[in-house]
Specification:
Layout: H1 12-17, H2 19-34, E1 35-37, E2 42-47, H3 49-62, H4 68-79, E3 88-94, H5 105-108, E4 115-119, E5 123-126, E6 128-129, H6 134-139, E7 142-147, H7 151-158, E8 164-170, E9 173-176, H8 182-202
Antiparallel strand pairs: 1-2, 2-3, 3-7, 4-5, 4-8, 6-7, 8-9
Helix pairs in contact: 2-3, 3-4
């Protein structure tokens, strides 16, 4: 996926003046194409160039970062969060900080293999957790996870007759999300196609 560049950044004053418009567009896109709830306390948002653009743009505008060198540093950090070729990357958001949970072991024991994508009744794709140091596990309310689907997984993701959903099992928390919509599945497939095309072009 092509990295975000400075020419895409809207000047902070212009973005803040139109923030309600940008935010409404972002939320509509996320709700339709990128977001799935896993029970009452966990949300998965699959990230791509468009969602990360809003993240970095909002940060730059809110902090009123006008120095191009400082803006470039923020872009470089967020570009590290773009999905790798052949992969899907998601932010896993906990609605309640782990430190205030009645069962903190639920989140301190959180591991990537406890987060899964189910492609029909028999195929399970386990996640890799990219934020997995002790501080992340104990205190973080946001984590980064990665799915690396193979050819069979992608065929199932593209097959309309197959239900696809995500689930989480960590400590006492065990929840499955609703089936992913056709729009969301097409969007995820487009991510992988875009990543693969960029990989081949960069060779």
């Amino acid at each position: 996926m092509q990295p975000l560049t400075l020419d895409l950044i809207v000047p902070p004053e212009e973005f803040l003046a139109r923030k309600a418009e940008f935010l409404a567009d972002h939320m509509r896109y996320v709700e339709r194409y990128r977001k799935t709830r896993l029970g009452p306390r966990v949300t998965l948002i699959f990230e791509n160039r468009q969602t990360l653009w809003f993240r970095v743009q909002d940060l730059i505008a809110t902090a009123r970062i006008t120095d191009p060198r400082a803006q470039e540093r923020e872009l470089q950090f967020h570009n590290r969060l773009l999905p790798s070729a052949g992969g899907l990357q998601a932010a896993l958001l906990l609605d309640t900080p782990a430190s205030s949970s009645a069962d903190p072991e639920t989140w301190t024991s959180l591991r990537g293999e406890g987060i899964s994508m189910h492609l029909g009744p028999h195929r399970v794709l386990r996640a890799n957790m990219l934020s997995a140091d002790p501080a992340d596990r104990c205190w973080g309310t946001a984590h980064w996870i990665q799915f690396l689907p193979d050819t069979t997984d992608l065929e199932l993701l593209a097959e309309p007759s197959i239900q696809v959903w995500c689930a989480i099992q960590s400590g006492t928390y065990s929840q499955a999300g609703n089936p992913l919509s056709a729009d969301m599945r097409r969007s995820l497939i487009e991510d992988i196609a875009t990543n693969d095309a960029h990989k081949h072009q960069s060779r």
